[in-house]
Amino acid sequence: MDSRPSFLKSGERARLFPVLAETSKEGRTLSVVLSSIAYVEEFGAALFSSIGQRKGARTKVEVFTEIVFAKSVTNVRPDGLIVLTTGKRQWTALVEAKIGSADLDLPQIESYLQLARDNGIDAVITLSNQFTAQPDHHPLTPQKASLRKIDLFHWSWMFVMTQATLLLAAKDVADSDQRRILSELVRFLSHPSTGVKGFERMPSVWKNVVADARGDAPIRKNSIEVKEVIAAWHEEVRDLCLIMSRLLQTQVDIKLPRSHRKDQKKRVGDDSELLSSKYRLMCELDIPDTANTIAIEANLRTRSILLSMRLAAPGNKKSSIARVNWIVRQLSKTKSNEIHIRAIWPGKAQATQASLGELREGADVLISDYDKKMVLTSFDVLFIRELSGKFSGSKTFIDGLEEAVPDFYEHVGQHLRAWTPKAPRLRGKTEPSDVSPQAIQEEIEENATETVAGERGALADDSGGVAS
Prior knowledge:
The chain has 468 residues and is of the alpha+beta class. Helix content is 39%, strand content 19%. It is built from 13 helices and 13 strands. The protein has helices at residues 25-39, 41-50, 106-118, 157-169, 176-190, 206-214, 224-248, 258-262, 264-278, 320-330, 356-361, 394-413, 437-463, and strands spanning 8-13, 60-69, 80-86, 89-97, 123-128, 151-156, 253-254, 280-286, 294-299, 304-312, 339-344, 352-355, 378-386. Strand 4 (89-97), helix 3 (106-118) and strand 5 (123-128) form a beta-alpha-beta unit. The model has no long low-confidence stretch (mean pLDDT 91).
C-alpha cells in the first residue's frame, strides 16, 4: 500500500485513471484533477499560487482521495487531501467537490472546517460549478468561529480548466509528457459528461426585479430577491472573465477596488445599493495590454447592456477637432453601428455624444458652440446593445451579455491605444561633458555676459548715443 500521512486512518492516492464506482462522478473527476495537479508542475504551481501557496522546484505534492482521519469521531469524509512539503515545512488542505448542478452545503463545509481544526489541517478547498471573484472569496458564509485558524478557498471547475487552457496556449509547460496530460485534462473537463459547466441563467426572481425597475417600483436592497440577483451577477461576471481568458488566451480578471477585494460583504452591499437606487448592475474587466479596463453596465430600466472604455485625449493635439479625429481614426476598421463616442469636457461642462457613423462625416458634430472655447479632456467609447424582451429572460440575458462583451472587444477594445507622450530628445548636448559642473558654470557665465551686453545696447539706443 502507498504510504500516507500519519493522521490518516485510510486513503488512496489520487489517480489519473481512478477505479471508482460509476455513480461516483465527483470522486472520479476530482481524482483526475488532483493527480494532474501533482504530475504537471506548472499546473500545480498556478493553482497553488492563486491561494497564496508557493510551489518551488523542491516542493513535494501528494494528493489523496477517499480519506478517513484517525481523529475523526464522526462520519465526516471529505473527498480529498492535498499535502505540500518543502523541506521541513508542510501545508495541508482538505478538498470537497460538487459536480453538475449540486451546490456546496454550508453545514457540511462547517463540519470539514471543524475536522481540519481537530487534525491540524491548514485549509479547506471547495470545487463546484459556482463562481467567486477570487479564490479567497467563497460562495458560502460560515460562522467566524468555524474559520478560526483555518483558511477557506474556492475554485470553480471552469477556473481550473481555464488555468490549464492558458498554460497550454502560452506553451508554459516544459515537459512534453506533462503537456499531454494537461491537454487530456482539458479535453476531459470540457466533455459534457463530466458535469463541468459555466454560469447559465439568472435566478427565477430576475424577471420580477426587471419588471419592478421598468415600472420605477422600489427595490429593497436587503430583500431576498436582490441578494439572489447580486449573487448571480457576481457568478456571471467571474464566468465572463474565464470565457474572455479562453478566447484571448490570456488572464482576464475582475477589477475590484481594494475594499471589495478584502471584504466580500461590502461588495455585495455596494452592488445591492446600486441595484436598488439606480436599477443597474456594473463591473469592470481588466484585460492585459488594453488601453483601459472594460466597464460593463446592465441597465434594468432600459433593458440594455452598455460597454465602455475611457481614454484620455492626446496631449499633443491642441484642438478638440484634432482630438476627435484621433479617436475616430483608431476605429477606422470598425463596422458596428452600435458604437458611440462621448466627449468629456473640463469642469462642469456637460458631456456631448455622437455615433461613430456621424463622427466619420465630421468631427464638429461632437462640438457645440459653447464647447469651442474649451478643449475636451477625454473620451468614453460606448457600445450599446439593446436586448428588449430578452433582457428579462433568465437565460437570454446571460446569452446576450456573453455575446456583447466579445463583440465589444472585437470592434473596440482590441483597436484602442492610449496616448503616451513621445520620449524627450537630446538637443545639442549629447555627451556627459556637455552637462558637467564646469560646462554648466561656463554656460551661465556666457549667458550673463550676453545679457549685460544686450542691456548696454538697449540703453545706448534709448539715449541716442553710445553707453560709456
